[in-house]
Amino acid sequence: MNRILEAHFIAPEVKYFRVEAPKVARKRRAGQFVIIRVTGSGERIPLTIADADPEAGWIALIVQGVGKTTRTLNQLQAGDTLHDLAGPLGMPSEIHEYDTAVVVGGGVGTAIAYPTAVALADAGNDVIAIIGGRSREFVILEDEMRAVCTEVYPTTDDGSHGFHGFVTDKLAELIASNPRIDHVVAVGPVPMMHAVADVTRPHGIDTVVSLNPIMVDGTGMCGGCRVSVGGETRFACVDGPEFDAHLVDFELLARRNKTYGAFEHYRNEEFTASEHDRVNPPGSC
C-alpha cells in the first residue's frame, strides 16, 4: 500500500495528492504515468505523474473526479492509503532542443503537460505555456508554470481570467506572431487535442499529444488502449502515451472512449445515490 502524504483540492473536483512511492520517484521521467487501485476490488486507472521528489520518495498525482473511481479517490485524505500503485509506465517525453516550444494544457490536462514543460525548460528551451479552463477557478498550476516557462497565457471560455477564448485561439495567435515556434505539446480533452493538431498542421509545426484511451493493465497485454497512429495500431500504455498529433486518428479515439459510456454513467449514478444515503440516512431530517 502507498500512503498519502498530502491531499487538497486545487480546483472544483480536482485534487492534488502527494503519495509515498520511493521507487517510482527515483525512476520516473516526464510523460510517464502510474496505474493505481483505490481498493483491492476496485478498477485500475492510469494517472500521470505530475511531479516527484526522488530524495524524499514521493510522487504527485492530480485527479479530476469524474467517475466512480476518481470520485472515490478524491474522498481520501492525508494518512489514508492507496491499495496499490504500479509504475512508472509508458515512454517518457522526447526532449530535444527547439527554438521555442509551446505547451498547451486544457483543464486537468495542464497537470499532465506540466512535467514536460519542466523537462523542456531544464533542457534549455524557451517554453511558452497556454493553460485553459472553463472559468478562472478551473485554471490550474498557473504559478508552477510561471516558475519554469518564459511566458504563460491562461485562457478561459467565459473570459473571467486571462485570454477570453479557447487554448487553440491563443495558440493560433502566438503562431502568427512568433515564427520561432517549432514544437507544440498538447494535453487535454480529445476534441481539444484534435483542434490543436488542425491549428499546427498547416504550418508544419512538430506537434505531440498525450493520448487518454481506455487503459486496463498498462503493459500492452490487454489491448484496451489501442489507438490508430499513421494507419497503424499502437498501444498507448507501452508505445505512448505521446504520439505525433498529425498522425493520430482522433475520431476513432473518441468513438472507442465511449465504449463503456452507459456502464460508467450507471456506476456514477450509483455512487451519487450511495453518497446521498450516507450523508442523509433514512429517517434523518
Structure described in brief:
With 285 residues, the protein is of the alpha/beta class. The chain has two domains: 2-89, Beta Barrel (Elongation Factor Tu (Ef-tu), domain 3), CATH 2.40.30; 100-256, Nucleotide-binding domain of ferredoxin-NADP reductase (FNR) module (Rossmann fold, 3-Layer(aba) Sandwich).
Q: Can you tell me the CATH architecture of the largest domain?
A: 3-Layer(aba) Sandwich
Count of helical regions: 9
CATH class label of the largest domain: Alpha Beta
The fraction of residues assigned to DSSP E strands is 25-35%
Overall shape: it is globular
Q: Describe the sheet with the most strands.
A: 7 strands, mixed
> What is the third-level CATH name, the topology of the largest domain?
Rossmann fold
Helix percent band: 25-40%
How are the strands of the largest sheet arranged?
12-11-10-9-13-14-17
For this structure, the quaternary state is: single chain
Which runs of at least 5 residues are low in confidence (pLDDT < 50)? none
The CATH homologous superfamily of the largest domain is named Nucleotide-binding domain of ferredoxin-NADP reductase (FNR) module
* H/E element sequence: EEHEEEEHEEEHEHEEHEHEEEHEHH
Distance between the termini: 38 Å
Average pLDDT over all residues? 89
How many independent structural domains?
A: 2
Number of strands: 17
- Using only CA atoms, what is the Rg? 19 Å
User: What structural class do you assign from the helix and strand content?
Assistant: alpha/beta
What's the structural blueprint in terms of helices and strands?
Layout: E1 2-11, E2 14-20, H1 22-27, E3 33-37, E4 45-48, E5 51-53, E6 58-64, H2 68-73, E7 81-82, E8 84-89, E9 100-106, H3 109-122, E10 126-133, H4 142-148, E11 151-156, E12 163-164, H5 167-177, E13 181-187, H6 190-200, E14 206-210, E15 226-229, E16 232-235, H7 236-239, E17 242-244, H8 250-256, H9 261-279
Parallel strand pairs: 9-10, 9-13, 10-11, 11-12, 13-14
Antiparallel strand pairs: 1-2, 1-7, 2-6, 3-4, 3-8, 5-6, 14-17, 15-16
Helix pairs in contact: 5-6
